[in-house]
Amino acid sequence: MRLSVRAAATVAIATLALAGCGGSSSPSGSGAGAAPSSGSSSAPSTAGSSAPSSGTSAGGDLKIGVAYDVGGRGDQSFNDAAAAGVDKFKSETGATVQEAAAVNGESDAAREERLTQLAEGGYDPILVVGFVYATALSKVAPQYPDTHFAIVDSTDAKGANIANLTFAEDQGSFLVGVAAALKSKTHNVGFVGGVDTPLINKFERGFKAGVEAGKSGTKVQVKYLTQPPDFSGFGDPAKGKTAAKGMYDAGADVVFQAAGGSGAGVFQAAAAAKAMAIGVDSDQAKTAAASVKSVIITSMLKKVDVASYDFIKSVADGSPLTGEKVYDLKAGGVDYATTGGQVDDIKSTLDDYKQKLISGAITIPSK
Q1: Where is this region: Disordered (predicted)?
Q2: What pTM value is reported for the model?
Q3: Cα–Cα distance between 116 and 2 in angstroms, integer?
């Protein structure tokens, strides 16, 4: 397998300059209201890449590889948060960036090939975005011990040259759960998860706990869009819209989505129902389509941009991160958004809960 993958990688590397990635060349997911383009490929994209400019600061000679999750750039959520950290480092140093995105339904072998292409191409560090890459990274990283890898949202891939960048999603979700309960007039809210996985269950668990803390007895409707191994729930706005519409029709007036690009559909349903919605990962009141921004009362911020920047900079500084690093409330890794001012009236309450979570006065159930 290793020989066949490397052979494929050699061919792909020879055509990198011509390769394209749908996720990085045009918006997809929540911004465009569409699933990932079938034009996405396992070959890294040169879109957005540039050679280091003269006079760049330390790190300008780095060749950074990025393997995005389904949807790639343009999902205005998880992948775009990671991309923001990469872009920040690139703008500061002039580093070269090579990108590729996963395609829904692809195999671990395809993901392994994508990571191999980047490693064979001399990209170091390589940022791997999403737990779906864990199996592939576990195979590829040991073959390139001098290459520094980081994977977001997984501790399943471990190694001396792997950093595991994880988050306290339950803490951030708790805060927006409190907000949902306090803003709801029907005492009925909803949670839409993209794919029924332990990671997204963590969002649900925190949200439910926050709702109960905010207003005990508030009903929480729950719907997952797909079940593994079908990960299209992270890139299907139509499914998100249908799920959220059902919740609004059943009496919910606030719906929190942890569904990647499918969240665009949740926002559309909220607008149609003249109801409220809560974004995820990025501050989506800033990034969503203009027609739905007003329905987004807050977003659960998962600062993947901070984690991706930290990792890349650690390699540039000669002290690369390895092992697990948890970005929780205390570390500034999760939070809630205030764009639009729709939670200003409850901000003091939310901040009080934030401090209680940080101090340990409040703990979130593990199940």
Answers
A1: 25-57
A2: 0.81
A3: 9
